[in-house]
Amino acid sequence: MLFVLPALAIYCLFVVYPLATSLWGSFFEWKGLRMRGFVGLDNFARLFVDPSWPKLSGAFAHNVFWFAGIMVLQNGLGLVFAYLLFLRGRGTAFLQSAFFFPAVLSPVIVGALWRLLLTPDGVVEALLHKLGLLDGRLTILGDSTWALWVLIAVDAWNWMGLPVLIFTAGLRQIQPEVFEAARLDGAGAGRVLWSIALPQLIPSISSLTTLTFINTFNQFDLVYVMQGVQGNPNFSTDTLVTYFYRLAFGAEGAVGITDIGLALALGTLLFLLLTIVTIALLRFFERRTVRLT
């Protein structure tokens, strides 16, 4: 027990204490950085009425779209790439490294890089002009219809190597005799992936789904670097964490309004959402794994 105490003390100091302080502060009225009187659940109630509700619901919807997009673009394509590398067998170390290389870069660097590439008069615009696919300016980051999907695609490009690495490791854990027996029965590569490999990859899918959910609902740096803290254009790339940042650090509205009470209430709800859904995902995939074993 004595060996655990130092780690427990550090955990309580840097994790439990800030969380408890945030939760406690969400029940009080704030004036600037000063805590005033106890207001109960008023801060939570204010999140669900104007002017907070349209921004809260919009940011939540963007996080949900981000999660779905990453599951399809990053994890779905990552599974396909990992399976192709697995079928190829030896000599795939370089390709695995190539897929994983963007993951070693900070999202801040990735965001700055893609912002430069996608800016008007940038490399992508010149390339599209040469291919005859674009006539005029490339203003996709300023288009509220497409800006969010561009950010999702950049995020998927950044972390594509992670599902490739995890799925490749998972495929190599499956007994080769299982694949050999399926091939002898006449199953094609697609049928082997769907009926043999995918059920055996439930632990890998569980880990990636849980990590994807946590990361997408904590998305901030890529939006901040590429579209600013306001989630430009017109809040079309706003997320729950960028909205929290504006409330906590005075970037909400034209005059820079700070509302610590509202920010702490939003932070508490986000913590509860992440905790509850993460536990639900882990229990769901645990039951699926037990049924298959």
Describe this structure in words.
- The protein has 293 residues and is mainly α.
- 70% of the residues lie in helices and 3% in strands.
- The protein is built from 14 helices and 2 strands; from the N terminus they run αββααααααααααααα.
- The chain has helices at 5-25, 42-47, 52-88, 93-100, 107-118, 123-131, 147-159, 161-173, 176-184, 189-200, 202-217, 221-227, 240-249, 260-292; strands at 28-31, 34-38.
- A two-stranded antiparallel ribbon has the order 1-2.
- β1 (28-31) and β2 form a beta hairpin.
- The radius of gyration is 23 Å and the shape is globular.
- It starts with a helix and ends with a helix.
Which features does this protein show?
293 residues; mainly alpha; two-stranded antiparallel ribbon; 70% helix; 3% strand; globular
| SSE string, helices as H and strands as E | HEEHHHHHHHHHHHHH
Low-confidence stretches: none
Give the overall silhouette: globular
Total count of strands: 2
Oligomer: single chain
Give the rounded overall mean pLDDT.
88
Radius of gyration: 23 Å
Largest beta-sheet characterization: 2 strands, antiparallel
Strands of the biggest beta sheet: in what spatial order? 1-2
End-to-end separation in angstroms reads: 35 Å
Which structural class do you get from the secondary structure elements? mainly alpha
**Percent of residues in helical segments?**
over 70%
**β-strand amount:** under 5%
Number of helices: 14
